[in-house]
């Protein structure tokens, strides 16, 4: 059921993704960068992004490379620690946020009209993911 739900969600996002010119994984990266910029004073490292998205560097690095080639993100070495790579959305990447927010708001409204509590659903799914992730570590 989770797999079917994931596929249905990805399919529901396809019109928005097409308009943004992003794949679903690229959209998730951008979403984290947008949220990060609003709440944190410094850009996240690749490692921090990976932890937030639950992606390893072998998966995340090619995504970031493609986003950088599209002019949507920048990657730069941290001046204080050359081993760390900082990632930020460019002005062009930030410009996509308003379009994405409009689409997400419409989708949340649709779910709400069905009587679903989107916030509670998100918390439940996060809890499930945390439990499953913890079980995978044991």
UniProtKB/TrEMBL annotation:
Domain of life assignment: Bacteria
GO molecular function, one term: DNA-binding transcription factor activity
Subcellular location(s) per record: Cytoplasm
Assigned GO CC terms: cytoplasm
InterPro entries: HTH_MarR-typ, MarR/SlyA-like, Transc_reg_Sar_Rot_HTH, WH-like_DNA-bd_sf, WH_DNA-bd_sf
The entry's keywords: Cytoplasm, DNA-binding, Transcription, Transcription regulation
Pfam families, per database record: Staph_reg_Sar_Rot
The keyword Cell inner membrane appears for this protein: no
Keyword Transcription tagged: yes
Domain HTH marR-type: 1-130
BP GO annotations: response to stress
Matching Gene3D superfamilies: Winged helix-like DNA-binding domain superfamily/Winged helix DNA-binding domain
PANTHER family membership: ORGANIC HYDROPEROXIDE RESISTANCE TRANSCRIPTIONAL REGULATOR (PTHR33164:SF5), TRANSCRIPTIONAL REGULATOR, MARR FAMILY (PTHR33164)
Protein name: MarR family transcriptional regulator
Species of the source: Pseudomaricurvus hydrocarbonicus
